[in-house]
Amino acid sequence: MVEQSRTPVTVLGLGSMGSALAGAFIDAGHPTTVWNRTASKAEPLVAKGAVHAASVEEAVAASPLVIACLTTYENTVEALEPAAAALAGRALVPLNSGSPSGARRMAEWATGRGARYLDGAIKNVPSAVGAADTLLYYGGDRSVFDEHEATLRVMGGDTVYLGADADLAALYEMAVGGTLLPALVGFFQGAAALQARGLEAASMVRFSVKWFEMINSVLPVFAAEIDRGEYGDAASSVNLFLAGAAHDEELGREANIDVAWHEPFRELLERAVAAGHGEHSISALTEVLKKPA
Predict the structure, then answer these.
(1) Low-confidence ranges of the chain (pLDDT < 70)
(2) Which among 63, 201, 263, 267 could bridge 191 via Cys, Cβ 3.0 to 4.6 Å?
(3) Cα separation of 235 and 35, whole Å?
């Protein structure tokens, strides 16, 4: 009887993330229908109790809540086109990558076919799906969020509704996600430099974690400076960062590694100095990144 009271869920797309999401719904007792273009990816989930839909139309028709975990908004629309007639009245929640404008186009397409649209983003890796601190945020139809909030929390306990605009999750996804690749490339550069000395990359992990914790601690300070538009009280100035950038090429020569990825960052620092921000907080780079209206 408990299982029968759980909302049926359909998961479209069974890559590593989609499979993790479907597995979490199965484990939580939700009747779960799955679909993927490569049908063999459904087999492990069927073994756990999922129903494998033979077509995307059948998958959409099976549940009031449809989670789409495909790569892009364009991929999602392409996959859903054959099931467009079945979308009417159903809650559609895409969890894919894309721009805010892509989310708006997706919302227009979905609502034009009668779907109730709630755009989402998951900010973690597949192995973290279902954890109490795994973050997902949503923008769009508030009634979908209110009706299905308990079910959505199966995917992650830190579940946030951002507002009625359908592009908010995509906006925050890109705003927050912009830190990922530069941070990872910095770590990989450090690993290459250590290996050039015969040292293991693993030896720097503890120190890198401490460094990221320090960065975490100053983000509220930077955010407050940016929101006020006041950068004069600089704990770390633009000039200080620019002085440090001078050592990148020297490290590249010594360790025989490619440090060319730093060049756009150095140019950004130089532009900030030229704009009068040399002695301002490094957060003043926000102003340099803004293009004139």
Answers:
(1) 1-4
(2) 201
(3) 52
